[in-house]
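With this grant's support, we have settled on a layout for protein records. One resulting record is reproduced below.
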Amino acid sequence: MGSIILVLSTIIGILHVIIMGLEMFASNEKQAQTFGMSLEFVKLPNAQIALKNMGIYNGSLGLVMIASVFIFQGTTRFSVLLLLNVFVVIVGLYGGKTVTKSIYLIQALPALITLILILMKLV
């Protein structure tokens, strides 16, 4: 079960780095399409600032999750991944409610499954 947790956590981390790339570097058209926003809105300077700001957070979360898989060992590793997956579930639930419902499936569900696996391992 430990290996599955590490693979899922790595995939979730990579997903957040990809989300960062979309939020920070994708074209306005791609951002509008990906995040279910109007192109007119995405082109607004304040919307770009907000997207890039969210990108920094998503990228940081993803990189820390990936690094945790390799830096920590034993119970500490799974405790850190537990905390990070809790963050991802919270962010995924909020994003699913406020941005697009697909975030529930893409972001929150994989983190929730991983979270449950970690809890099963630690208990």
User: Anything to note?
Assistant: The chain has a mean pLDDT of 96. The CA atoms of residues 32 and 39 lie 5 Å apart. The helical segments are 2-25, 28-35, 39-42, 45-71, 74-98, 102-122.
